[in-house]
C-alpha cells in the first residue's frame, strides 16, 4: 500500500532518503519568466527544459508547464482541462499508487504543479522545500539528459472549487463578502500607481497583501516555520471563511495557497486569471495607491 507523503513540503534530506522508492515520481517544473520591457506589457516565458537537461535530480522527469500543463488556447498559463491534465500527468508516470515530489528553480512553479495535481483530485504530492538550489547547495547528486517514468493512467476527480473564476471574484468585490482576497505580489505592486506589467495599475478592491516572497527563508529558499507563517497571515486568518489568492497570472498565488494549507485552511482557491485577466477588462474596478 502506498504511504502518504509527510506534509505538503518534503525536505531535501527526505527526498535523498527516498529517491529510489519505486512509487516515487520526481518532477522538475522549472520555467523562466521575464518582466516586460519598458513600454510593453508582454511578459516573456522560457521553458526550463534546457536547465533540466543540463542538470537535474537523478530520476526526475521534466514537467512542462508551458506546453503540457496549461491550456494552449486559454491564455497565459491557464489551467488545463481535466482531460488534458490527466493525459499529461499520465505521461509523467503518475498513477493512483504514485507519490509525487515537485521542484523547480523558482519554487512557485513547483507549487503551481502541486496545486494543479490537488485540483485534479491527486493529494499524494509535495513540494521539495528549498527546491533545486538547496539540493545542489548541499552537494547532493545531479544527472544530465532526459529521464522519464513508465506511462500510467492518471486517476483523479477534479475539484473545481480549488480555482476561483472571474465571476466569483466579481461577486466578492461587489458584495464585500464571500471570501478574503489575497494579493501575493510585492507591496510595491500592491500599491502601484503605474505599471508596465499589466493593462492597468492597481489591485482587486478589498485585497489583503501577503507577499509570497516573504514566506521564504532568504538563506536557503525554504518556507518559514509555521509559527512565522501564522504571524505573516495574521490579518488573513482573522477573517473566517474562504480564501482566494491571486497574483499576475496564477503562479505566485499558489505559494500563498500552499502556506495557507500548511496553516490548516481548508477552503482556499487560486484565481487563475489573476491580474492579467482582471486588469484587461476596463469595466472591472481597481484600487490604486
From TrEMBL:
| Keyword Repeat appears in the UniProt entry | yes
Tell me a Gene Ontology molecular-function term this record carries.
thiosulfate-cyanide sulfurtransferase activity
Q: Which InterPro entries match?
A: Rhodanese-like_dom, Rhodanese-like_dom_sf, TST/MPST-like
**SMART domains, per the entry:** RHOD (SM00450)
Q: Which residues form the Rhodanese domain?
A: 49-144, 202-287
Among Pfam families, the record links this protein to:
Rhodanese
Name the PROSITE patterns for this protein. Answer: RHODANESE_3
Key words of the record:
Repeat, Transferase
Specify the superkingdom: Bacteria
Name-wise, this protein is Sulfurtransferase
Amino acid at each position: 500500500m502506498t504511504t502518504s507523503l509527510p506534509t505538503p513540503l518534503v525536505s531535501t534530506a527526505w527526498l535523498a532518503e527516498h529517491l529510489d522508492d519505486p512509487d516515487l515520481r520526481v518532477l522538475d517544473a522549472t520555467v523562466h519568466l521575464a518582466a516586460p520591457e519598458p513600454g510593453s506589457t508582454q511578459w516573456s516565458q522560457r521553458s526550463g527544459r534546457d536547465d533540466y537537461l543540463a542538470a537535474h535530480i537523478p530520476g526526475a522527469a521534466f514537467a512542462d508547464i508551458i506546453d503540457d500543463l496549461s491550456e494552449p488556447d486559454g491564455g497565459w498559463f491557464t489551467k488545463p482541462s481535466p482531460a488534458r491534465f490527466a493525459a499529461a500527468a499520465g505521461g509523467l508516470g503518475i498513477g493512483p499508487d504514485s507519490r509525487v515530489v515537485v521542484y523547480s528553480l523558482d519554487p512557485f512553479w513547483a507549487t503551481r504543479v502541486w496545486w494543479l495535481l490537488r485540483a485534479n483530485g491527486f493529494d499524494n504530492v509535495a513540494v521539495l522545500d528549498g527546491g533545486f538550489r538547496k539540493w545542489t547547495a548541499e552537494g547532493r547528486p545531479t544527472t544530465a539528459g532526459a529521464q522519464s517514468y513508465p506511462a500510467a493512467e492518471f486517476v483523479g476527480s477534479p475539484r473545481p472549487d480549488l480555482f476561483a473564476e472571474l465571476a466569483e471574484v466579481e461577486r466578492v468585490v461587489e458584495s464585500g463578502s464571500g471570501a478574503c482576497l489575497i494579493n501575493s505580489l510585492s507591496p510595491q505592486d500592491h500599491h502601484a500607481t503605474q505599471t508596465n506589467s499589466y493593462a492597468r495599475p492597481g489591485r482587486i478592491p478589498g485585497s489583503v497583501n501577503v507577499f509570497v516572497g516573504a514566506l521564504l527563508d532568504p538563506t536557503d529558499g525554504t518556507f518559514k516555520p509555521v509559527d512565522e507563517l501564522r504571524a505573516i497571515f495574521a490579518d488573513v486568518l482573522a477573517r473566517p471563511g474562504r480564501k482566494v489568492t491571486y497574483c499576475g497570472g496564477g503562479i505566485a498565488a499558489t505559494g500563498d495557497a500552499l502556506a495557507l494549507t500548511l496553516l490548516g485552511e481548508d477552503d482556499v482557491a487560486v484565481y487563475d486569471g489573476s491580474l492579467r485577466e482582471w486588469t484587461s477588462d476596463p469595466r472591472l474596478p481597481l484600487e490604486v495607491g
